[in-house]
């Protein structure tokens, strides 16, 4: 089957569709905290509406099937701007070439924002690590999480 896939910035009226994609990411990721729709909705709106942040979507035949949200900031360790992705999720049925187009659009945005580097994070999935490596990203650190309570 051939899909008409478009990568573009999300529009404000698509916030709830973006929120649904974020919920799908949260469910698949195994993040040990409950998904909070109100909190995530505010973050989605912020990334969609703030001109200094990014919210890309993958639209396939009129339906949203992927999201990549990011922001840029000065590094606390060096006087350089670094872009960092907050969420990157593509529906498993649409993980062909379109996710790479999303990453390339993210890189272009980061360059336009004056960033010296762009970061992506993955959740211990070797397929994600291979995809990021093939896109030119290198592993720089591992993060560990301990639930306090």
TrEMBL record:
Residue intervals of the N-acetyltransferase domain: 5-149
Pfam family, one: Acetyltransf_1
InterPro entries, per database record: Acyl_CoA_acyltransferase, GNAT_dom
Gene3D superfamilies: 3.40.630.30
Transmembrane residue ranges: none
Identification of the protein by name: GNAT family N-acetyltransferase
Originating organism: Leisingera daeponensis
């Amino acid at each position: 089957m051939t899909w008409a896939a478009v990568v573009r910035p999300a529009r404000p009226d698509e916030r709830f569709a973006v929120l649904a994609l974020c919920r799908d990411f949260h469910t698949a990721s195994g993040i040990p905290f409950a998904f909070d729709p109100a909190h995530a909705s505010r973050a989605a709106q912020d990334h969609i509406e703030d001109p200094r942040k990014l919210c890309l979507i993958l639209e396939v035949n009129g339906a949203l099937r992927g999201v990549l949200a990011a922001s840029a900031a000065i590094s606390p360790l060096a006087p350089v701007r670094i872009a960092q992705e907050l969420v990157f999720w593509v529906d498993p049925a649409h993980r062909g070439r379109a996710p790479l187009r999303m990453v390339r659009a993210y890189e272009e945005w980061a360059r336009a924002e004056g960033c010296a580097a762009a970061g992506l994070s993955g959740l211990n999935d070797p397929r994600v690590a291979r995809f990021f490596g093939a896109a030119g990203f290198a592993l720089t650190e591992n993060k560990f999480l301990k639930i306090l309570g």
